[in-house]
Each structure stands twice: as C-alpha cells, then as structure tokens.
Design a protein that fits this description.
about 575 residues; alpha/beta; 4-stranded antiparallel beta sheet; single chain; 6-stranded mixed beta sheet
Length: about 575
C-alpha cells in the first residue's frame, strides 16, 4: 500500500486535472445511462399511443444525452490522457534526477540493458496506472452510489440489487483478476528487462558474434527469452479473457435478477411497467463503468512491479552527498591528496592505498603503471565520482566534500578513453562541454587536436552525423574529438586519461608538443601507459597496487633505474647502453 501512496504522490501537481477527469468519466457513463433510460421510457410509453406532447420531453432527453455522451467521452479521453502524459513526464524527470545523483558510483552494478529498461520500459508501464487504474476506480465509486440511489428511489430492493451487482463487478471481480494475474504480470516486467538486456548485448556485440560464428547460439538465447516473455503475455491474456467473460455473466445475471424481482412488483402494482423497462436498461448501461476496472486489474501488478524497480534504484543513498552550504571553488585551485585510500567494493583489494599527491596550481604530473594500479581511480576521486575512504582531498586547505560537485567539475577538464560519443552531429558532441561556444571556437579546438583538415572533408562540416557511439569514425578521431571537447571547457585543471590512445606516432608527437603550450598555465594530471613525451612534466608517479612506488621527474627516475626504468626499457626495447647514447 505504501508503494501505491508513493505513486499517488506524483499526482499532487495535477489534482485539478484529475478532478476534471474523474467528473468527465462519470459524466460519460451518466450520459449513457440517461440515454438508455430515456430511450426505454420513450419506446415503452410509445407502445400505449400517447399524444406526442407527452413524449416530447423524452425525445429531447434522448437527443441531449446522445450528444452529451459523445462530448463527455471526448473530454474524458482528452483530459485523462493529458493527465497521463503529464504524469509520465514528471516521472521521467524525477527518475533522471535520481540517476544524476547515483551516477556513476551506484550504477556500475547495473547492466546497461537493465538501466534502459527501467528508464523507458518501467516508466512506460505506468502509462496504464492513471488512465486504467486510478480514474476508473474513482468514477466507479461515484457511479455505484449514484445509480443505486437513482434506482432505489423507484424501488429500494432493486436499488440494493444494482448496488450489489456493481460492487461485485467493480471491486470483487477486479480483486480476483489481480490475484490470478500477479504472477504473469510480475514475470512480464522482469522478462522484458532481460529481453532488453539481451537485445542490447546482441546489437553491441554483433560484429564479434559474426566473427566467432555464434549467430545460432545467440539466436537461441533470444528465442528462449522471447518465449518466456510470451508465456507471461499469454497468462495475462487468459486473465483478461476470464475477466471479460465474468463481467458479461455478472452483468446479465444482475439484469435477470432485476427482472425476477421486478416483474412481480409490476403485477402487484408496486412498480410501473414502463419504469421496469427503464430500470433494466439503466442497469445494463451502469455496468459500463466496471469494464475498464476489470481490465485495469491485470495491469495493476505490472504497474506496481515497474514502480518497485524504479523506487529500488531511486531509494539508494548517493555515493556523493551534496553540502548544505557549499564553498565556492577557487579560480586557481591548489589540490592536496593526503593519506588517501579507496576500494570499489568490500571484497576487492584497495584501488588506492595511502596516497599522497601535491597538485598545487600550475603543477603537471603523470600517473604511470600497469593496468589496475590505481591511475584512473585517482581521477575518479578528483572528479568526486566517489569519495575517498579514508584520507582526504583538500582544495586550498578545505575538504573537497565542502564544495559543490557540480561547480568543482566545471573547473576540471576531463578526458577519458571511454568517453561517450553521442548519436548526433559533431557540433552537438562538442557543445556538450560548452553550449555557448561559437563555430570559431569549435574549429579552433579541432585544429588544436589535428582534426582541422579532417573537418573540411566532411560532407556537412560540423553538422555531420557521427552515428551511434561514433561508429562512422576511427578510434583515433574519436579520441581526439573527446580531447577537443575537453579543451573547449577552458578549465584551470585538466585530467587526461590516455589522451593519445589509438593515435599514430606522428600525431601523438604533435599533440604532446601542443600539450606543452596548452597546459602551460594550468594544472595537469596525465594518466598514460605510453612513456613518451614526459620529460617536461614536474613529477611522474609510478603506481603499483594502488601505491606510489616511485616518484620524480623523468631524468631522475631513469637515472635511478627502478620500476620506471624497467617499464621504459620494455616499452622502448632499449638496453642501458642504448639509453645512455639517447641521453
């Protein structure tokens, strides 16, 4: 029940529209009841050949209710869907805001297909929550009370019979349908998430699947998941068929009981024969209100299951807590990492182990070492994707937790080898870093990363479509576009994670020469496996298992012939004699 109240809480901004929607829904059914009731009165009365004047009111009533029913039906659909789309918009914005607070630390345990299913499929599953669940139930309560009182004003026993019939079809039957459809509805939501993940994996790995001739095995897996999804849909279809059949039986059964009770009343003179015909047709029309509720019952569990999945993610505690009163980030920040340790999970080894790094403003350092040594972890902590535990990061002597993460990241230009290239134009991919940048700024940074001539060869220049994940461009071009996007921020601090990955030697050397001038008056942390062009940096830190095992400038580290020298020798395949000659 708590889950339902949380969902209803999203409707508070739409209270007025929901009231209008409920009234139009009730008015639609009421107009239908009035139409059949006046029609029955007109036909039954006409059998006795009265004067036309006696039938004029009924004739006008038929016209009025016939027209108004169409008008109210249109207004009901218009208003209810307006409320529904507004509600889905509110849910999407709320969920995206939750994801922003959780990313990336809390999202690394979820598969992309599962996240996509929650952000799209589960919210779309709530599409039925208001139109088919909330609004019809409210309208049914008004209709059951109102129509029962109307019939009861002619005969109390018939009023109770109608109240009982409407109560069973509007509330008891949907409850039974809900019980029978709970399993298939829950399974359908889960299987759709699995199917989404399976399809996403297939599309992303299509090339590898073809290369390794795994098409049949992959197709078998997709078919298996699809069959399980279909079974859940068939289960829901069975419950829908049962619901429709029982609704028809209860409707006709109530009408039959009305006749069994009403005919003797006509014979004894307690009820006029014309009114019995009116009551019977009113009874048949009244059950229109119960049809959408019975149908909604099978969607109820799928809506609740979708809501559970959304709240399960949204209720997680963010890894980063925003300060209540943030301190302004200095224009030229001095950063000090002191006794910093960190692990991504309790079962994993430390990714950073008692690190001490001084990055005073304008200082330039490189982080080198084997994969898994903790280089990227340091960048993640500087970006405040995670918080250190224990240890501290100080900016001008103030703990980094005192600053707004958003403002801090505006001071940092971050370039990673796994950065996203979005399925849009080159221009839009660059403007992500600086929405107010002019074309001249875009061309300038592209020229800086050796892509100026390439842009001129593109069919639409900056407006050229890059395709999904940048599949239409090479790995080196993709990496340089990410670097250009970072340079567009014009930040005082830059964190570069393998910025020369996928580049040929000539382009790499030109970019490194460019780094000397671009970052001359900025702070720089450069993560690299390529021990090339590091001679101009203030300090090189060699990491192993999250610890700094060596530090110093390139000349000092090569002279000491320690771990950096070993990495240098392996990469360049130079003997000590050759290195001495190179110096």
């Amino acid at each position: 029940m708590k889950l339902v109240w949380r969902l209803l809480g999203f409707m508070k901004p739409l209270r007025g529209w929901i009231l209008i929607s409920t009234m139009t829904g009730f008015s639609t059914v009421a107009a239908g009841v009035g139409l059949l009731g006046t029609s029955a009165y007109l036909i039954a009365s006409a059998a006795f050949h009265p004067s036309i004047a006696e039938l004029s009111v009924a004739v006008v009533g038929v016209r009025f209710f016939g027209i108004s029913r169409g008008v109210f039906r249109y207004l009901d659909r218009l208003v209810s869907h307006h409320v529904n789309f507004r509600l889905l918009s509110i849910l999407r914005i709320w969920f995206y805001d939750c994801l922003k607070l959780l990313a990336p630390a809390r999202l690394i345990h979820y598969q992309r297909g599962d996240l996509l299913s929650r952000a799209i499929g589960d919210i779309d599953a709530l599409d039925q929550f208001y139109v088919r669940a909330v609004s019809p139930v409210i309208s049914a309560i008004f209709a059951t009370v109102g129509f029962s009182l109307l019939v009861g004003s002619w005969n109390v026993r018939l009023g109770w019979i109608l109240a009982a019939g409407l109560s069973v079809t509007s509330f008891v039957l949907p409850a039974l349908v809900y019980i029978f459809s709970r399993g298939p509805a829950k399974q359908l939501v889960d299987q759709r998430a699995i199917l989404s993940q399976t399809m996403l994996d297939t599309l992303r790995g299509a090339a590898e699947i073809i290369v390794f001739q795994q098409q049949e095995e992959d197709l078998t897996q997709i078919n298996r998941v699809s069959l399980q999804t279909n079974r859940a849909q068939v289960g829901l279809a069975h419950s829908q068929g049962l619901s429709n059949g029982m609704n028809a039986v209860l409707t006709q059964g109530t009408v039959a009981i009305m006749l069994l009770v009403g005919i003797p009343l006509v014979r004894t003179g307690e009820l006029d024969g014309i009114m019995l015909a009116v009551i019977v047709l009113i009874t048949m029309a009244s059950f229109e209100i119960s049809i959408p509720i019975a149908q909604a019952a099978q969607f109820w569990e799928s809506s609740l299951q979708a809501a559970r999945r959304l709240f399960e993610m949204a209720d997680q505690q963010p890894a980063i807590i925003e300060p209540v009163i943030p301190v302004s980030v200095p224009e030229k920040p001095n950063i000090l990492i002191r006794n910093l340790s960190f692990q991504y999970h309790g079962n994993l080894p430390l990714a950073a182990d008692h690190l001490n790094i001084n990055l005073s403003y304008g200082r330039k350092i490189a982080l080198v070492g084997e994969n898994g040594s903790g280089k990227t972890t340091i960048l993640n902590l500087l970006m405040r994707f995670w918080d250190c535990q224990p240890g501290e990061i100080l900016i001008d002597g103030i703990l980094v937790q005192e600053f707004s993460p958003k403002e801090l990241r505006q001071r940092i230009g971050y370039v990673s080898p796994g950065g996203a290239i979005f399925q849009t134009t080159l221009r839009q991919n660059l403007l992500l870093a600086n929405p107010g940048a002019l074309d001249a700024d875009l061309l300038r940074v592209l020229d800086c990363v050796q892509l100026g001539e390439w842009v001129q060869t593109l069919p639409d220049g900056l407006d050229t479509w890059l395709g999904a994940s940048g599949l239409t461009i090479s790995g080196g071009q993709l990496q340089r576009i990410q670097l250009a996007r970072g340079l567009l921020m014009d930040a005082p601090i830059y964190l570069l994670d393998e910025p020369t990955t996928h580049l040929d030697v000539e382009t790499e050397n030109r970019l490194i020469s460019l780094f000397r001038s671009i970052f001359q008056n900025r702070s720089l942390v450069w993560v690299t496996h390529r021990l090339v062009g590091l001679d101009w940096l203030d300090e090189i830190l060699v990491l192993e298992n999250g610890r700094v095992v060596e530090r110093g400038n390139q000349h000092t580290l090569l002279e000491s012939r320690g771990r950096f020298y070993q990495l240098w020798e392996i990469q360049n395949r130079l003997s000590p004699v050759s290195y001495t000659h190179l110096r």
